[in-house]
Amino acid sequence: MPRGTSEVSEPMYFVLAALRGGPLHGHAISKSVKELSGGRVQPSVGTLYGILERLNERGVITVDREETVNGRNRRYFRITDEGQALVQAEARRMQAAASLVLRPSGAPFAPRPYGA
């Protein structure tokens, strides 16, 4: 498991986000990632399967099932509870970072007290 959410790349984030809707196979994950990212993230097949392998090794996704369709194996992946927690933590981290930049111009920065 990663030490922090900073180890989640943008493509990994969108793969995890895609799997929040339920188990998907590689091609469906790729289409969902493209849609969720507004077309910004379009990993090649090799890159996508590398991401899936790394996320599976980290325990944040797992193989849900395998089936054969038109003579080809199709592997479905699902997000684990750890993966849900990771993608939610990463979303909160990005939201907090964005709020610093998107606050009204000239608005004072009020850091949160340590430990709050």
From TrEMBL:
UniProt xrefs under Pfam families: PadR (PF03551)
Domain of life, per the record?
Bacteria
Enumerate the InterPro entries for this protein.
Metal_resp_DNA-bind_regulator, Tscrpt_reg_PadR_N, WH-like_DNA-bd_sf, WH_DNA-bd_sf
Task: List residues of the Transcription regulator PadR N-terminal domain.
Answer: 15-87
PANTHER family per the UniProt record, alphabetical: PADR-FAMILY TRANSCRIPTIONAL REGULATOR, TRANSCRIPTIONAL REGULATOR RV3488
Q: What is this protein called?
A: PadR family transcriptional regulator
According to its UniProt entry, this protein's organism is Nonomuraea rhodomycinica
